[in-house]
Amino acid sequence: MSNFSAFFVENASVDVTEEVVVSDRFKDDKGKPIPWKIQGISEAENKAIRKSSTKMVKAKGGVKLPEIDPDEYTTKLVIATVVYPNLKDAELQKNYGVMGAENLLNKMLLAGEFATLWEHVQTLNGYDRDINEVMEETKND
Q: Gene3D superfamilies recorded for this chain (predicted)?
């Protein structure tokens, strides 16, 4: 296989998943914390999330400019990445007395637990690398 063909869709790794213990509060029948399963998303999915989290706001002179709501974007990105537990499950939402995955996630997790999950979501989706480090590696190759 030539180096170029490694970029073909059939040769690209598709299993970009990770299990992470987000909280010690969710335990199995043996008392061990249950890991959450997260999966990386494509840039196309990311763009759709970013677009759905963007609103037009009035700026100086009445000009309307796009503005991303960072909390909405973060929550939607996490939801798109979480495979297990199924945050879109109606029974789980009902159990927490909420409707919608966003509301469920915000009710299920403590602030620090959400931060832990967010950190893993960022790393899994490639946001953990400093652009300067990447540029330095590229120069040295």
A: 3.30.2220.30
